[in-house]
Amino acid sequence: MDVKSKGSGMDYWKKIVILLCAGWVTIWVYRSALSPAYPQINESLGGNITDTALGFISTCYFFGYVAMQIPAGFLVDKIGKKKVLIPGFIVFGLAALLISQATNIQMIYVGSVFAGLGCGSFYGSAYSLTSQNIPREKRSFSTAIVNSGSAVGSGLGLILSSFLVVQLKFPWQTMMYISVALIAVMLVAFVAIIRNNKEDAEFLAQSEAAEAAEAAAAAPEAPVVEKEHVSIKKLFSPKMLFAYILYFATCYAYYMTVTWLPNFLGTERGFEGAAIGFSASLVAFASIPGALFFSRLADKFMHRKVQFIVILEFLAAAMLLLTVQATSSTLLLIGLILYGFLGKLAVEPIIISWLGENAPKVGIGTTLGVFNFFGMMSSVIAPTLTGSISDATGSKEMGFYISVILLVVGTALFLLANLNKKKATAE
User: What are the TM regions of this chain, as residue ranges (predicted)?
Assistant: First the structure.
């Protein structure tokens, strides 16, 4: 059912796709804006801040983001998406403003936690909107477009921060002011476009009635399935547990790279100015065609999902290894581009698709919650741990090696669990 927005010929679901893509762009411009400017932040706050302390900025953000996931999901169901999303982005904007006025690192930590809490309102609201409004036959590709906003925002944030702050010597706070302006634009768009609770309820009732009629016409004699609760045993069976571990490793590598790659390129590989942001943004921009290409391929060869996952994860680990061991800038950039093309954003939709097919049917929501929790916990650990390693060794190379090891081990465990499953099925 294609419902058109008021005063416009565009279908409502198409506006939702554009709106949510822009939302991810805004969030990721903020997320990636500070890491290229770590030396400037350090200098403005006295020059005595360690890499551990700088990495803790990202940890604080992701701590707030992870903490908000379950409460935000509950509130979306209870009071509606618009009533969760708008206050969340107001908190996000105020937090970015607080960071721009920071006179010490502790103020940045506090602002980062609140920015994470504010952004945490977006995930549940966004994917409730996509699942309820985008036609089923257009949902996969539309969701890929929405997700691409994170890659675009990450690339823009890195490039803008490196160009304005590192090369043109603007104050690092400039990126926070840009973030506040983008957040204000998004708030206006949320108010103007997203339906209120009453309109949403009416639309959902019509959609559910239409879907029920479709289902009844297609399978009038379908048996009624009794509801049951998902058990802990099924939730943490070996194949599910190893899928969670694999996702933790996948996210660890990605968030370590997003947080520390600009600083690594500038302090350890001799990149300067805008070249830092441009080079780091290659990971984000290369991920867009990778996600679209491999998702389509996995849908075409549905019985090969495990093979796709395993091959992509091993190749991503190899590209990270190439990045850190490259002896020339050309090889390093090739490694970054291929890691983006083969890495998290390419493999994530396939893992989620595999999860939907293998999770307990009565507990898919709970399973996805546990799955996302494992993944996002890595974002809390990776930035600070890599900063601590840098302080202890004088280099961030070991952070990359840890990511490679985690990817290889996680992938091997996932493959082993699925090989055992095939063997058991055959027997």
Answer: 12-33, 53-72, 84-102, 108-129, 141-168, 174-194, 241-261, 273-294, 306-326, 332-355, 362-386, 398-419
Q: What are phi and psi of 168, to 5 degrees?
A: -85, -5
Point out the domain boundary residue: 159, 189, 204.
204
Question: Based on the domain organization, do 92 and 191 belong to the same domain?
Answer: yes
Task: Return the percent helix, strand and coil in the chain, to nearest 5.
Answer: 85, 0, 15
How far from chain centre, in Å, is Cα 78? 24
Residue 178 lies in a domain: yes
Strand partners, 4: 11
Q: Does residue 184 sit within a domain?
A: yes
DSSP-assigned letters across all residues of 244-290: HHHHHHHHHHHHHHHHHHHHHHHHHS---THHHHHHHHHHHHHHHHH
Q: Are residues 188 and 254 in the same domain?
A: no
Grade residue 223 by pLDDT with cuts at 50, 70 and 90.
Answer: very low
Residue 34 lies in a domain: yes
Q: Is 149 inside a domain boundary?
A: yes
- Residue numbers of the domain that contains 362: 231-422
The four Cα atoms 190, 140, 30, 63 give a dihedral, to 10 degrees, of 100
So what's the pLDDT on residue 199? 59
Instruction: For residue 54, give the nearest of 67, 37, 66, 31 by alpha carbon.
Output: 37
Cα dihedral 74, 28, 251, 307 in deg (nearest 10): 100
Residue 142: its pLDDT value, please? 77
Q: Please, is 235 exposed, middle or buried when counting C-beta atoms within 10 Å of its C-beta (0-12, 13-18, 19+)?
A: middle
Backbone angles phi, psi at 4, to 5 degrees: -90, 145
CATH number at residue 61: 1.20.1250.20
Structure tokens at 119: 């952004």
> What is the rounded CA–CA span in Å between residue 425 and residue 416?
14
Query: Tell me: the pLDDT tens digits for 114-143?
Result: 999 999 888 778 877 877 888 876 766 777
Spatial separation of the C-alpha atoms in residues 41 and 28, rounded to whole Å? 19
Residues 42, 102, single domain; the answer is yes
244 and 193, same domain (yes or no): no
pLDDT at 211 over 70: no
Q: Please, which residues have CB within 8 angstroms of residue 331's CB and are 6 or more apart in sequence? A: 322
State the residue for tokens 């999770």: 359
Our count of domains for the chain comes to 2
